[in-house]
Amino acid sequence: GSAPRLVAKTEGSLYDLTAATDQLRTFEDLLRAAAIAKESIDAIADRLRGDATVLSSDVLDETAPSAPVSSGEVWAAGVTYRISEEARKAESGMPEMYLDVYESDRPEVFFKATPSRTVGPDESIGIRGDSEWDVPEPELGVVLFEGEIVGYTVGNDVSSRSIEGENPLYLPQAKVYDKCCSIGPCVRSAESIDDPHDLEMWMTISRDGEVLYDESTRTNEMERSVEELVDCHVAHDAVPDVSVLLTGTSLVPDEEFTLQEGDEVSIGLEEIGTLSNTVVEV
Ligand code: DO4
Ligand code: MG
Question: CATH topology for 73-281?
Fold first, then answer.
């Protein structure tokens, strides 16, 4: 149907938690219920599973899941991996500023998207019509509730490298525009992830059925910890109850590569899932 439903996924099974209580329709509902009950989201989901409808695994293929976090704001950290620092230095007329950010105490944390600019799995991600060089940025996403880490997701910080490289003051235009961000396919609870700093991440980009890019990396290449980035994100700012913080890109296609309308981008993160989107010009 058209109304949202909250689904819990365990090892091999899917549970429709909205069938157990229609007060839980979104992930945000679950976060608020957990806060009121002073329980973890896993504890609530486990308890409700007894009354939930068991779904066939095909359901997620047949139904377009929406972005798992649909309220609040998306923020992003940058230049947290050496490869990103090198790529920005190469593209920028002011290369030294990127080394400063990679090595300094204060990380780069910037506003990325509102829910209105964020898409979910299998929806279209945007490249700007006034940009000549565009890339997907695969990133581990940290899901926060009232400033605390409650889960992890996969994010795509789609960016214009030509606009960003032209002048650092153009960064908001390179980063924030229609369909500039993708989140999904699910949120994995923080308590069920052993170590967010040691997850494999991969990305493929295909055009007309041909794979143009296929690389992988690990989050242990990140220069900073997730906690450090979150501390900086929430410091001296009334962040919304729910926010997602992307933690920077670790995979950068060669300089010759730019996204085109119709390209298919898939980003996978070990223990979380795969987020796939098709590119559209906006
Ligand atoms: O300032 C540039 C943005 C960096 C970024 O988005 C990243 O490293 O992922
Ligand atoms: Mg990024």
Answer: Fumarylacetoacetate hydrolase; domain 2 (3.90.850)
